[in-house]
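Bit of a strange request maybe. I'm writing a small parser for structure token strings and I need a real example to test against, not something I typed by hand. Could someone generate the tokens for this chain?
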Amino acid sequence: MNEQEMRQAMGVLEAYKAQLEAINEQGQLLQMSLEDYFRAKDTLLAVSKGKPGDEVLMPVGGSSYVHASIVHSDRVLVGVGTSVSMDKPVEEAIATVEARIGEMMDALKKVSESRTVLESKMQQLSQGLQQGLK
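Reply from user aminoacidic:
Good idea to test on real output. This should exercise your parser:
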């Protein structure tokens, strides 16, 4: 391997590192969203078991909760798009959240697979560079 090929390989390796960092950040964001959906599901399940007038602790994010009273335990507002929510029966809301959890888990699996492929390419390229230095 000549010097120019070594430089090109090093550039490719740096590009792979940047891609890996982006994939890791994407994975972290997906994981945070997944945790948010699990909290939403847990909250919806708890509300569905309550009755009007019951006092509950409602998560508001950042590991913070507010005291609230259930007004309707059979209907909730569910986000369906950017700043758009719909009133739905709690069972439909739970099903919607479960579907989103499934989507997030599929996306996390794809991110993990991409990470594995990229790490393999990086390892192969690193080994090639090491052999080229000998």
